[in-house]
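Folding Problem: From Residues to Backbone Shape
Fields: amino acid sequence; protein backbone structure tokens
RECORD BEGINS BELOW THIS LINE
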Amino acid sequence: MLHIHAVGPALLTPLPTARNEVVVTHHGPDYDREKWDRIAKLALRMGEKTATTYADKVIVISNVIRDSLKENIISATQL
């Protein structure tokens, strides 16, 4: 099993899926933080989408994050 902590590194979620179960923990919408430029924010959003598309499981640390994912981008991934 591979456990990825955060949406940035979750860009790599599709790589090991053929061999291992992948779990991603979503700690929050990092792309909303002011410290990131447009390209970094895009990459973080892509990581979030990749996680919800390819991970076997997504762990969220709050109901707010869960509701946001369900409302905006959730796929067949189990929360």
User: Anything to note?
Assistant: Residues 2-72 form one domain.
